[in-house]
Amino acid sequence: MHKDIATPARTKAILDKYGFSFKKSLGQNFLIDTNILRRIVDHADITEESGAIEIGPGIGALTEQLARRSKKVLAFEIDQRLLPILEETLSPYPHVSIINEDVLKADVKTAIEREFEGFDDIMVVANLPYYVTTPIIMKLLEDKLPIRGIVCMLQKEVADRISARPGTKEYGSLSIAVQYYTEAETAMIVPKTVFVPQPNVDSAVIKLTKRTEPAVAVKSESFFFQVTKASFAQRRKTLLNNLTSQLPEGKQKKEKILSALEQANVEPGRRGETLSIEEFARLSDALLPYFS
Ligand code: SAM
């Protein structure tokens, strides 16, 4: 086996050799603890037959662990300066492909079709750049990619919001958006000391397992998400207040909103954070005829 990339000494040697300076604006906090990396990969349940997609390989710390345990790795890295480094660090692993692109702009679906033909199991595994955690997760879910799920490191605060249950202060439109597509659980809390440079916030690893069908059946997905966003616009306001102020022409349609709430069996004086995902589905289906 080759020497691990992610030891503090080897990471420093690689960074020094290439004169690499971290770009805070790209969320560059590299992992320097092989034990944590192996545990992240454990949570992904991948096998020698699996394909792995990584967002932001950095100098290849996680990529290497994925390469050792999967059939193929495809990684998207935005920072061109890392390409020659990755070429060197990942040279023992020819089944790794790096795409030098912003993952938010990339056509991930086409890349998967090209790189993972005939694969039955594909997992996204990443230590995400924290400045774009939510857009990346939402893109991967909304693009309806043929993946089993996502295991990723992110800010603990975002992990808490993603896996939150109704009635908690963390529960909001992000919880609903992610739980609509996946079963979400926090897999582990990670100390700041395993990164270089250390981030300012606490971190966690979450595991998102895609559902075969969305958590609820709704007549219009986009309207369902519009209603959930509107319901949490001002957390201290009631549902009725948020819906009338946020939905298009909501004020004029107050009576209609009230009758939809009644039809969905949801009290207008409740707050968004108390509604289950099923109640949001009923409510959005009842509101839809008045807003289409
Ligand atoms: N995987 C490495 C590790 O664990 O040590 C690096 C993780 S670091 C938190 C995030 C990585 O994502 C960096 O390499 C950064 O350059 C890259 N990155 C930032 N924004 C990106 C984007 N929009 N698309 C692709 N990669 C991005």
Summarize the structure.
With 292 residues, the chain is of the alpha/beta class.
**Proper CATH architecture of the largest domain:** 3-Layer(aba) Sandwich
H/E element order: HEHEHEHEHEHEHHEEEHHHH
- CATH fold-level name of the largest domain: Rossmann fold
Q: What is the CATH first-level class name of the largest domain?
A: Alpha Beta
Overall mean pLDDT = 97
Lateral strand order in the biggest sheet: 4-3-2-5-6-9-7
Count of β-strands: 9
Give the termini separation.
60 Å
Strand percent estimate: 15-25%
Our count of helices gives 12
Radius of gyration, taken over Cα atoms and rounded to an integer in Å: 21 Å
Could you please describe the fold and organization of this structure?
The protein has two domains: 8-210, Rossmann fold (3-Layer(aba) Sandwich), CATH 3.40.50; 221-291, Orthogonal Bundle (Helicase, Ruva Protein, domain 3), CATH 1.10.8.100. The protein has 292 residues and is an alpha/beta fold. α6 (133-142) runs parallel beside α8 (173-181) and α9 packs across α12. It is 38% helix and 16% strand. It has helices at 8-18, 34-43, 61-69, 83-89, 108-115, 133-142, 156-162, 173-181, 221-231, 239-246, 254-263, 277-287; strands spanning 30-31, 51-55, 72-76, 96-99, 122-127, 149-155, 182-190, 195-196, 203-210. It has a seven-stranded mixed beta sheet, with helices on both faces. It is built from twelve helices and nine strands. Bound molecules: S-adenosylmethionine. The site of S-adenosylmethionine has 23 residues, from β1 and α3.
